[in-house]
């Protein structure tokens, strides 16, 4: 039995669950451009989130009355295909919704958006399953208004209910239904607007909101994601893009790398990669990678996963198996054995592998210049690295997410994100897009 204060909670969407500014502003700009209307210089585009868009087009942006409907249609078409994908889920919201669901709380959405659009947004972000009910307007005019939407979002009987929102309309909607109004000051409404509306509680951060709605709840378990690939596979670029996308999906991302990731392990990295240490033998190198990993798992990876974070780690034990086991021919078994106490059971939940032939990767790295003698010797080394990776993947297909890294950056990034999300949010996959 949980000790949550509310057994029914209705949420507003824009500015409460999601940072909607970029998505909405970009579609407003598109509509204005298509209409051939200039955006007035004094217009503050941040103000477009919240008030009815028809009014914004007409009064703030100066669209003639007879063209407002056309503007709305252009806006909607762009929002559906581009704008909504620029939404960002605020941090801590994902874990909060999951805790509420675990606690048996009735969770509803009460939005002034068309209902089907709100459903699409929740589905895209893998949140639809967290809601018992989605209440929105029908297409076109705002027929119901917030008080009515909130009433429809509440279950037949409840012990104590709350409406959470970032504008005074949300506070008024709660009050009209005799339930608690929880206002959030991190959204689009100013503090002054919210204070004047006199909510029951005003919170400043999503963390405070989560603590208020789910006091004492245990954090849902995190996720350990690693990224692997041969040198020249474009790994750093893809890890950067993936990190941004996962943050946009509301994950508490801890980005880290190997060798390194914490002070002691970064010191060890310097020793391994120092060109002055040419006489380092292969076994010493393999043990140093393992030593650096032991500290990294102990100090960074394990604690972060336990507190609910998504750890995004650039290279992990598979690199040792491929480079030291395969490349340096120390043997896969030996490398797995020396890494066993370092990994200490904390294997990745999923591993993204950027697949590219090592010769193609080398061509990329050398950017069309002729390889020298040393680089040609390296061809064999990287061939063995690739082979070891491929054997690892064949043995553990359930863990690996393989993407073809010979394509262009954006195509690889989209493919990688969709495949990773299918692992991190298995429910989203079932719902389709
Ligand atoms: P990294 O910094 O990931 O370089 P890049 O982004 O250019 O691939 O890795 C540095 C090198 O360390 C890389 O060549 C792979 C190697 N390495 C190993 O040989 N064993 C290991 O266990 C790890 C983690 C990395």
How is this fold's topology laid out?
Layout: E1 8-11, E2 18-19, H1 21-35, H2 53-60, H3 68-81, E3 88-89, H4 93-102, E4 106-114, H5 115-124, E5 133-137, H6 146-153, E6 161-165, H7 168-176, E7 180-184, H8 191-197, E8 201-203, H9 206-213, E9 223-228, H10 235-248, E10 253-257, H11 263-273, H12 282-306, E11 310-314, H13 317-327, H14 332-343, E12 350-355, H15 358-366, H16 373-395, E13 400-404, H17 409-424, H18 426-431
Parallel strand pairs: 1-4, 1-6, 4-5, 6-7, 7-8, 9-11, 9-12, 10-11, 12-13
Antiparallel strand pairs: 2-3
Helix pairs in contact: 1-3, 2-3, 4-9, 6-7, 10-17, 11-12, 12-14, 13-14, 13-16
Thymidine-5'-diphosphate (TYD) binds next to helix 10 and helix 13.
Describe the protein's architecture and organization.
- The chain is an alpha/beta fold and 433 residues long.
- The chain has three domains: 8-18 and 87-213, 3-Layer(aba) Sandwich (Rossmann fold); 21-86, Putative phosphatase, domain 2 (DNA polymerase, domain 1, Orthogonal Bundle), CATH 1.10.150.240; 223-424, P-loop containing nucleotide triphosphate hydrolases (Rossmann fold, 3-Layer(aba) Sandwich).
- It contains 18 helices and 13 strands.
- Strands 5-4-1-6-7-8 form a six-stranded parallel beta sheet, sandwiched between helices. A five-stranded parallel beta sheet has the order 10-11-9-12-13, sandwiched between helices.
- Helix 4 runs parallel beside helix 9 (206-213) and helix 10 (235-248) crosses helix 17.
- The site of thymidine-5'-diphosphate has 12 residues, from helix 10 and helix 13.
């Amino acid at each position: 039995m949980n000790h949550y204060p509310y057994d029914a909670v209705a949420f507003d969407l824009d500015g409460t669950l999601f940072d909607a500014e970029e998505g909405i502003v970009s579609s407003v700009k598109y509509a204005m451009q298509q209409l051939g209307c200039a955006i007035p210089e004094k217009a503050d585009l941040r103000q477009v989130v919240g008030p009815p868009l028809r009014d914004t087009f007409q009064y703030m942006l100066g669209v003639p009355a007879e063209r407002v409907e056309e503007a709305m249609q252009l806006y909607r078409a762009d929002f559906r295909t581009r704008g909504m994908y620029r939404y960002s889920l605020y941090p801590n919201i994902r874990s909060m919704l999951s805790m509420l669901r675990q606690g048996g709380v009735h969770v509803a959405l009460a939005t002034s958006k068309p209902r089907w659009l709100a459903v699409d947004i929740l589905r895209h972000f893998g949140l639809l399953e967290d809601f018992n009910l989605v209440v929105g307007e029908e297409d076109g005019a705002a027929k119901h208004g917030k008080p009515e939407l909130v009433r429809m979002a509440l279950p037949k009987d409840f012990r104590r209910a709350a409406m959470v929102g970032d504008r005074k309309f949300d506070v008024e909607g709660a009050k009209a239904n005799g339930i608690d109004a929880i206002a959030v000051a991190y959204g689009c409404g100013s503090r002054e607007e919210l204070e004047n509306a006199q909510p029951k509680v005003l919170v400043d951060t999503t963390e405070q909101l989560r603590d208020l709605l789910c006091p004492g709840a245990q954090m849902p378990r995190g996720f350990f994601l690693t990224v692997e690939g041969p040198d020249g596979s474009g790994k750093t670029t893809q890890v950067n893009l993936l990190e941004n996308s996962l943050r946009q999906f509301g994950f508490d991302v801890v980005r880290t790398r190997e060798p390194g990731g914490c002070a002691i392990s970064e010191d060890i990295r310097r020793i391994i990669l120092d060109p002055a240490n040419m006489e380092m033998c292969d076994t010493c190198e393999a043990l140093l990678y393992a030593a650096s990993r032991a500290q990294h798992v102990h100090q960074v990876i394990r604690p972060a996963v336990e507190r609910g974070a998504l750890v995004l780690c650039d290279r992990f034990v598979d690199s040792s198996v491929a480079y030291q086991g395969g490349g340096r021919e120390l043997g896969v078994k030996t490398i797995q054995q020396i890494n066993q106490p370092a990994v200490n059971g904390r294997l990745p939940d999923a591993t993204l592998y950027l697949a590219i032939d090592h010769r193609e990767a080398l061509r990329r790295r050398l950017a069309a210049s002729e390889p020298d003698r040393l680089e040609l010797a390296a061809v064999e080394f990287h061939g063995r690295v690739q082979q070891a990776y491929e054997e690892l993947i064949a043995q553990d297909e359930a863990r690996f997410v393989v993407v073809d890294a010979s394509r262009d950056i954006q195509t690889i990034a989209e493919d990688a994100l969709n495949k990773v999300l299918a692992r991190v949010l298995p429910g989203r996959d079932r719902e389709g897009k």
